[in-house]
User: What shape does this take?
Amino acid sequence: MDPIIEVQGLTKDFGRFRAVDRVSFTVLQGEIFGFLGPNGAGKSTTIRMLLGLLRPSGGTGRVAGFDLVREQDRIRERVGYMSQRFSLYEDLTAEENLLFFGGVYGLPEARLRQRIEEVLELVGLTERRRDLTRTLALGLKQRLALASAMLHEPSLLLLDEPTSGVDPIARRRFWDLIYAMADKGVTVLVTTHYLDEAEFCDRLVLISQGRLIAQGTPRELKAAVPHRILAVYPDRLGEALAAAREIPQAAEVAVFGAGLHVAFPPGVEGEELVRQALTSRGVAIRRLIPVAPTLEDAFITLTRQARA
Assistant: This one.
């Protein structure tokens, strides 16, 4: 597969603050490519540079075959963009919003009408086409925003935190739409801070404090965790966390739902160490089992290694 995005050393400074620090990656045509990191990590700034909305402070790149500094207009003709903040007009109907943005894209009227029917059906809003946008639930608004980004049949979709704030069912339905786009040959770059969503990507990068700290498939990133992970389910989580953090041999300790993940270096039998540490505090252990590393384990471990 040929690359549709190639960037080398991409950097963005705002005064003395470096928001994106020499990021390099390649996205192949037809991929679902994830940008995973916490809020404020530099994901949205990177997206805006790829679109030509922000001029890089350094580095080079090409998007859809065009230089991201010299050919910004050509890039925007071929890329669909869904911003983190809902950007459609609340006082227009769903269909009126699509008519407006289709005009912005310069679609001929006949083709625009056809595309509106196609995208409304795809996102499941045909029956809501005449509803005012402000009356739609957030999940439906996000689907409408995706529909507007797809009107001009882009070869690349840039989706910036598209499911932020929506409920789990709406998130799952939105990812079904992303898969539908990928099945049609559209490349999708999606930023997210949801670790479960990152599992849906073909490949992804981990970004923290503006720096790319790792990249690969979800399986490759999880395989990069060198530790043996124990899942611990205690009766008192807060006290168990404090006790586990005092185990000298523990490489990482983190809360996972109602339990803990405690990581030990290879060759260290951590079960007895955990039992001793928690029982000495009067904490009962309901369950203690070894588990395979998750993406959250990978993110915690790789982030800490990058900062060391």
Summary: Residues 139 and 166 are 6 Å apart (CA to CA). The two ends are 35 Å apart (CA to CA).
